Amino acid sequence: MNGNPGAIAAACQEISKGRLDLAQEIISVDYPFISLANAGRNYSDHQKTKIFLRDGFIDRYSGEQLVFPGALRLLSFLMPDEFPFHRNWKTSECHIAYWQLLPTIDHVIPVSRGGEDVEKNWVCTSQLRNGAKSNWLLEELGWSLHDPGNLDEWDGMINWYISFLETNPHYLKNKYLHAWYSVAKLEINALQMHAAS
Predict the structure, then answer these.
(1) pTM for this entry
(2) What is the per-residue pLDDT for 112?
(3) What kind and span of H or E run contains 125?
(4) 4 with 60, same domain?
(5) What range defines the domain where residue 16 resides?
(6) CA angle, residues 47, 50, 51, in degrees to nearest 5
(7) For the chain, which end, N or C, has fewer CB atoms within 10 Å of the first or last residue's CB respectively?
(8) Residue 31 confidence (pLDDT) above 60
(9) d(CA 39, CA 54)
(10) Mean pLDDT in the chain?
């Protein structure tokens, strides 16, 4: 869906002729204002991880691999100088990987554009592309939806995260790392049980 430059040109011509009322009518009919309010969705870590696993930790808008949030934060915990994280996401103090590789959920069809707030309309994408997509439709951006990834080929380091913390349980004293560990274990177990049934 493209814009309507013809309506803009027609409205401008009417304005030049001193006919603001006709310009208003042209815009109202041919290129009406549609509010694109931010829906401000909030997902639980369980919901997010379920979608990350479903989509194989692939950015569905680019096809690029993404990394489980707990794994990224563990790297920052272990290497704060080399892989810094800032709790307010200050770009001068936070590693760029948090925008490029941290997965998040996006609505393929934005809620503000009539999309439903349901799993079938949710996809895994990076923070960077989520911000770029905003309330736009894929066709407006010239983007396409990539197929989900294969967890046997790339698991977003979620299994490494679980294994590392089970081998080094003292890191679980960190509330953030422990929370993502609990979510990872629960969702991986649910996935394995579903595959076995």
Answers:
(1) 0.80
(2) 85
(3) strand 122-126
(4) no
(5) 1-33
(6) 90
(7) C
(8) yes
(9) 23
(10) 90
